[in-house]
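Comment thread on ticket #2218

A.B. wrote:
> Attaching the input chain for the structure job we discussed in standup.
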Amino acid sequence: MRRVRPAPEPVETSVSGTSREKAPPPTLSELVEGGRHWRFTTEHGPVHVWIPKGYDAKRAETIVYVHGYYVHVDDAWRNYKLETQFAGSAINAMFIAPEAPSTFGEPVAWESLAALLDSVERGIGQPWPKRRIVAIGHSAAFRTLLGWLDEPLIDTLVLVDAAYGEIEQYKDWLLASDHHRLIDIGDDTREWTDKLHADLPQTVVLDSFPSLEEGIPRSAARARILYIKSSLGHFPLVTGGVALPMILRTLRAKRLVREPLAEILDSQ
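C.D. wrote:
> Ran it. Output below, let me know if you need it in another format.
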C-alpha cells in the first residue's frame, strides 16, 4: 500500500518578516536523480561507482558491494536496481560495485581490494573516501571477500547470505582487531551462520528480519557483531529493495536525509 505523504509544514516566518515554507524531503526518485553515476571498464571487467547528492568526501564511507552467481555486475546494477537501493539508504558514501564471478568456473575478478580502489580513483578522477571501508557480499561473493580478509583497509564486513563454509576465516578476521565489525545475514546459509555465531558470544541476534516500519533496533544497529536470521529468501535480500537499504542504515555513516527509511522507500 502506498503511504500518503505528510502535508507540508506550516509556513515559517523569518526575522525579516518574510514567510517561507519548509522544503519537503526529497523523494526516492529525486535521491536517485540527484546522485552521480560512473561506469568504466578495466582489465578485470566493468566497475560501477555512485555517490549521492550532498556527498561529502571528507566524512563519507567507502562501500564496496560484490554480487553473487548468475549475474554479472552490469546485470546486477540494472536488475537489482542497485542505484535506487543505494540512494534509498540516504547515507553519505561512495558506493562501488565491481565485477565478480557469475559461475563456479569463473575466476575471481578482483583478488586485491587495493587494486580495485586504485582503479576507481583513475576511473572517476577523484579519490575514494579514506574514512572507513565496508565490504558487502551476497552469496558467492564470499569467493572475492575471503581474498580480501588480509587487507588492512576493511573496517566492516557484511555477509548477505554469503557464509558458505570457511567460517573460521571470518571469525579470525573479526577477532584480529577490536575495530573490526561483522554484520551477517543468514537465510540459505543458516547451517554455517548459526555455527559461526555460536562461537561468538558477543553477537547481537535478531531472530527475524524486522519489518520496514519497525526498522532494525538501534541497539542492534550499533552492535559490533550483528546476526540476522532471515526468512526473506536468498535473492530477495538483494533484489527486494528493502533489506539492502536497511542493512546499509546499520553502518556508521552520516545520514543525508533524516526521514525514516519507510517514508523514503515509499516516496516517488
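A.B. wrote:
> Thanks. Noting for the ticket: The CA atoms of residues 37 and 50 lie 4 Å apart.
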